[in-house]
């Protein structure tokens, strides 16, 4: 039943309907406490008794509450009134991207700018371990001033809420997360989603490629006459080239969209941050595109003003655009600022398995250790950065508390016998993304991978690396991958600090030494564990039946 104007939901008074979808009805309402208009999403009557629908509704509220980013819809409140569940969100003036494409397709520079904001929003979600899984033009909102907001995280997943038994049908989803079933909106789904595999950040990047191509061409690349034909196209066909649609489109943009739409997830962009950085480079290398983009934004801001004002604004902007091009073409290249201190934030575990957290933390430790070998760099200690794991603070706040000029953040993806590390460099003072790259090797070459990433970061911050330091970073100790696993697990569990955990860590180290009696890493870990064990006992006394013998530990 539709809510009438004047209906109260908690502290909010409904003033009118805004729209409805398969999983919710949206109303305009007034928040008298803060004197502002808000949007309220209500679970429809037909679904109010459906536990699966209610679970999805509540999950969307929790996901949005965990995210804070200018390109993601903001949630203000949740509640229930007389059996009606509702979510209170920011009220956005504007239209969905789907409506905008139907009215007037953006030109490619405008589409790329929108794409950058979409990718930025996805990156913020992925950093929290949240995958959208239903990205499409209907779930992307274009505000009146030309900015992007990502909507509808009702199908989003995170490692904590994975439920292989949950299933629901709806207009935009075949089934919610389950092993062997599919989820999402078919024309925008990745091949792995269609095969019933669990979606990760790279699945969102495939959907993003579909959306960006539709923005530019007006048509989703794989949509066909029937659902079966659409599924077949996604699984087997190559998306048409953007240059077939418009030969003036830069080849770099065509290649970027093709890379998003590769069938194999390992060959796509591995993070939305990488993708956003790449799109910015494309836009910034075309000065005329940048000028047109600025013009579009300013015209949007003057929407509704007099024709004379609009014409004057256009003339001024054209002059400024021409001057900007002349000045930009003649100025010297921008020099990246020199950073005196760097903080490596805990790398995110993108493996889709919370049990792999120890591996991501181990990669963080190794990266900090490798960078710490460079005298020309001041690297914030592991002890200082670990409290900021999964922190909701802004990058600028974190950097300020750590006294860091630059921040390295990234992720670790471990799949079968491959490891991929993605890192990005952020200028803390300006909260500006400067560089991003992914590096991948076989698991047995993980030390070489760590050294490669450390060298790349040092190069990006213009640190002076001596030949001796480079040798120390790139030297790969001979260690069996299984033994290294035991070392990382021991180090990870030892961080909890409880005596029981320290004893488990000792078992891991000793198991590793049984496989490789000459491993210096394991002896170091074992020695640290014994020291922690002794410190855990008050006044240094030994607990009954618990010897602190260092037998077997190399001391020379």
């Amino acid at each position: 039943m539709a809510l009438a104007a004047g209906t109260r939901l908690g502290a909010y008074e409904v003033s009118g309907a805004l729209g409805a979808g398969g999983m919710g009805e949206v109303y305009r309402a007034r928040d008298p406490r803060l004197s502002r208009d808000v949007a309220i999403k209500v679970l429809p009557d037909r679904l109010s008794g459906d536990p699966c629908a209610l679970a999805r509704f509540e999950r969307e509220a929790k996901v949005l509450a965990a995210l804070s980013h200018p390109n993601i819809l903001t949630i203000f409140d949740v509640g229930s009134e007389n059996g009606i569940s509702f979510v209170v969100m920011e009220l956005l003036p504007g239209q969905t991207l789907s409506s905008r494409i139907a009215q007037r397709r953006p030109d490619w520079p405008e589409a790329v700018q929108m794409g950058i904001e979409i990718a930025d929003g996805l990156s913020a979600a992925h950093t929290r371990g949240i995958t959208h899984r239903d990205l499409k033009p209907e779930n992307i909102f274009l505000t009146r001033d030309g900015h992007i907001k990502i909507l509808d995280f009702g199908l989003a997943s995170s490692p904590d809420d994975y439920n292989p038994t949950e299933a629901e049908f709806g207009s935009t989803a075949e089934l919610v997360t389950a092993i062997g079933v599919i989820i999402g909106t078919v024309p925008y789904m990745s091949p792995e989603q269609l095969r019933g595999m669990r979606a990760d950040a790279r699945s969102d990047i495939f959907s993003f490629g579909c959306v960006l191509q539709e923005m530019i061409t007006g048509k989703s690349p794989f949509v066909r006459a029937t659902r079966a034909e659409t599924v077949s196209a996604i699984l087997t066909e190559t998306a048409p080239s953007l240059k077939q649609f418009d030969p003036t489109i830069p080849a770099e943009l065509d290649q970027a969209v093709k890379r998003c739409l590769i069938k194999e997830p390992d060959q796509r962009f591995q993070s939305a941050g990488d993708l956003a950085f790449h799109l910015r480079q494309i836009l910034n290398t075309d000065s005329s595109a940048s000028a047109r983009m600025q013009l579009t934004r300013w015209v949007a801001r003057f929407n509704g003003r007099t024709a004379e004002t609009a014409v004057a604004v256009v003339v001024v902007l054209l002059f400024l655009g021409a001057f900007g091009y002349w000045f930009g073409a003649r100025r010297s290249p921008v020099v990246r600022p020199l950073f005196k201190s760097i903080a490596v934030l805990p790398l995110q575990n993108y493996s889709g398995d919370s049990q792999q957290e120890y591996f991501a933390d181990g990669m963080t430790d190794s990266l900090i250790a490798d960078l710490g070998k460079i005298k020309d760099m001041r690297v914030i200690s592991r002890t200082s950065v670990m409290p900021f794991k999964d922190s909701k603070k802004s990058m600028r706040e974190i950097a300020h508390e750590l006294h860091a000029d630059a921040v390295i953040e990234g992720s670790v993806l471990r799949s079968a016998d491959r490891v991929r590390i993605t890192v990005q460099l952020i200028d803390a003072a300006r909260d500006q993304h400067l560089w991003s790259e992914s590096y991948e090797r076989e698991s047995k070459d993980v030390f070489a991978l760590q050294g490669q990433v450390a060298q790349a970061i040092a190069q990006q911050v213009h640190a002076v690396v001596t030949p001796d330091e480079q040798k120390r970073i790139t030297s790969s100790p001979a260690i069996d991958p299984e033994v290294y696993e035991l070392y990382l697990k021991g180090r990870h569990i030892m961080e909890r600090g409880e005596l029981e955990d320290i004893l488990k860590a000792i078992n891991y180290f000793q198991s590793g030494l049984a496989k490789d009696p000459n491993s210096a890493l394991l002896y170091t870990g074992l020695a640290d564990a014994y020291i922690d064990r002794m410190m855990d006992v008050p006044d240094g006394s030994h607990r009954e039946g618990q010897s602190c013998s260092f037998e077997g530990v190399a001391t020379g």
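The longest helix spans residues 307-330. Residues 8-90 form a domain with the Phosphorylase Kinase; domain 1 fold (CATH 3.30.200.20).
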